[in-house]
Amino acid sequence: MANNKRPRHGALLGVVAGLALQAGPAMAAEQGIEMTLAAHHFTPDHVTVPAGTRFKLRVTSHDSTPDEFESPALRVEKIVMPGQTITVTAGPLAPGKYDVFDDYHPETAQAVVEAQ
After folding, report:
1. Within 10 Å of residue 106's Cβ, how many Cβ atoms?
2. 111 lies in a domain?
3. Distance (Å, rounded) from C-alpha 66 to C-alpha 82?
4. In a domain, 68, yes or no
């Protein structure tokens, strides 16, 4: 009978990759998720945060006029002056999608925060 003691690198890599994917949103939420406002559009316009955890969003305006980062669902309303960076702390959130917009330019500046 042959001894089948070959390393199981594939299984180990799968476990490590799975842990990294799970830690990714949590680590990003701890450090803060970067967003920018330019030409009255959010970039990125969709961010993912861990459900049930507080998180930080750092929003930097590259617009030449003020913007207002607003989300009734996140209970946030904050003015962002040109060239300024604000930090918003929110959560914990139940799983779902939460709308964010620039109250001064709601027709163009829209984003989604998704809690998973």
Report:
1. 13
2. yes
3. 6
4. yes
Domain region containing 56: 32-115
d(CA 30, CA 56): 7
Q: Read off the pLDDT of residues 66-92 as tens digits, 9 standing for 90 and up.
A: 999 999 999 999 999 999 999 999 999
| Domain harbouring 96, CATH code | 2.60.40.420
Who contacts 33 (Cβ-Cβ below 8 Å, separation ≥6)?
Answer: 47, 49, 55, 56, 57, 58
What does the mean pLDDT of the chain come to?
Answer: 83
pTM for this model (two decimals): 0.72
Give CA separation, 40 vs 65, 71, 82, 112, 114, in Å.
Answer: 9, 16, 11, 15, 21
Region for residue 27 given its phi and psi (left: phi exceeds 0; alpha: psi -120 to 50; beta: otherwise):
alpha
In this prediction, residues 24-40 reach a mean pLDDT of 75
